[in-house]
Amino acid sequence: MTGALRRAVGGALVAVALAACSGGEGTGLPRPATVEVQAPQSQLFVGQSVQLSARALDAGGGEIAAGDAEWASNNPQVVQVTTTGLLTAVAPGAAQVRAVINGRAGTMDITSHARPQRGLPGNGTRDANADPDHEQRDRRASLRHRGRLRLRLHAPS
Asked: Which pTM value belongs to this model?
């Protein structure tokens, strides 16, 4: 073998060995065994946003530095996620967000709900349509002062 050929073969072997040791698709960072996606909550109302985070874990479950996460939603019509992991619910439905760190992915299921409408029974607000007798009660109000005075107010019909 000539000297030039030996150097070329040696250089190729070194490159293969370095790529095999890095395990991180040429980044020089370790490839995680798993990626854990975390959110303060997985049930959101439309218009609500939360900051997601992703942790790269080794085989023993310890956190490792393996690079930044790349974020995606499998249903962007329901939830959208920015490159920094800010998740926003945009419509009712279900979706799955995915974080990829150095070639390894982790996912989390997210459910987006419509905001409760004001005036529905049980949500702490009053709606005229939910209470058919509201007009009768609203026309009469009484005020007592030390048990002596009773004032009745009548709204015009």
From this structure: 0.58
